[in-house]
Design a protein that fits this description.
Layout lengths: L10 E5 L5 H14 L5 E4 L9 H10 L8 E5 L1 H5 L5 E5 L7 E4 L4 H9 L5 H5 L15
Parallel strand pairs: 1-2, 1-3
Antiparallel strand pairs: 3-4, 4-5
Length: 140
């Protein structure tokens, strides 16, 4: 079994916390409002409740090469409860298991650049702040 495939040129946003449906709705609304075009394929399947990053890595490693995805964004308990709804971005390919937090307002930029392979996961992960969150690139 492999992770669900995102729609064309979108990123997979996988719900892993099922304690608050209203918060999940707020996360989706924040992500949708952040960009002009759809950037997310939302998956809310109970089999992913509280899933660990290693389990996702194992699932992808076992999938056929054509079915593998290179990154995923998790909507976990932190995403649902914290202001800014910071997703957990997870690299499934180049540096499997590398993560960073991504507030909703930055999601469209990161998703678009990763989806078209304009930038690598590491470029965003390397630009995180002291809290481990990507908040854009420094100007100038």
């Amino acid at each position: 079994m492999s992770l669900p495939q995102p729609d064309d040129l979108t990123s997979l946003v996988l719900r892993t916390d099922f304690g608050d449906d209203t918060a999940w709705d707020a996360v989706r609304a924040a992500l949708d409002a952040a960009g002009e075009y759809p950037h997310a394929t939302y998956v809310s399947e109970p089999r992913f409740a509280d899933v660990e990053v290693q389990a996702l890595l194992d699932e992808e490693a076992a999938a056929d090469e054509d079915a593998q995805i290179i990154h995923v964004f998790l909507a976990d308990a932190t995403t649902l409860r914290e202001p800014g709804h910071p997703l957990l971005a997870v690299d499934l390919s180049d540096e499997p298991g590398r993560t960073f937090r991504l507030p909703a307002r930055w999601f469209p930029d990161v998703s678009a650049n990763l989806s078209i392979a304009n930038m690598d996961f590491a470029e965003f992960a390397d630009a995180t702040d002291g809290s481990g969150a990507f908040r854009g690139f420094e100007e100038g």
